[in-house]
Amino acid sequence: MDDCIFCKIVRGEIPSEKVYEDDQVLAFLDLSQVTKGHTLVIPKKHARNVFDLPPETAAELFRRIPKIANALKTAFPLEGMNILNNNEEIASQTVFHCHIHLIPRYSKKDDFGLIWKDNSDTYDEEEFKKRAEAIREQLKYT
After folding, report:
1. Domain of 11, in residue numbers
2. Number of domains in the chain
3. Per-residue confidence of the chain (142 residues) as pLDDT tens digits?
4. Where in the sequence is the active site (predicted)?
5. What is the pTM of this model?
6. Torsion angle defined by CA atoms of residues 105, 107, 111 and 115, in that order, rounded to the nearest 10 degrees
7. Does the residue 137 lie in any domain?
8. What CATH number did the domain enclosing 52 receive?
9. Closest to 38 measured CA to CA, from 140, 111, 122, 142
């Protein structure tokens, strides 16, 4: 896409601090550096987000994640890592080119965190089974 900032980075029109590149995938440091080494991994071929990502492109993208994650682990004294993918504005996607965040974690006090609420008391077993069936039904058509 002509106006996509990540496509411009892929084309070399905007500078970036690249850490990995091959014919299908590019990884570069996120300017925000949520934590030291925060890296974005993108497919070079534009896709808005995971909903638009062709299976072959997804396979190539995710095949590189362990290699890049392990490079971060070796480069920095991290204790763990969050691997995130935000899809659409409601999920905090701000650049509409599919990308994976690799966010190194150094301590519980490194200014990053997730809230993981347990909602298991808001549904019963029947509702739980209905949710699973709704998903299984849609998977029949994909």
Report:
1. 5-112
2. 1
3. 789 999 999 999 999 999 999 999 999 999 999 999 999 999 999 999 999 999 999 999 999 999 999 999 999 999 999 999 999 999 999 999 999 999 999 998 888 888 889 999 999 999 999 999 999 999 987 6
4. 99 (tele-amp-histidine intermediate)
5. 0.93
6. 80
7. no
8. 3.30.428.10
9. 111
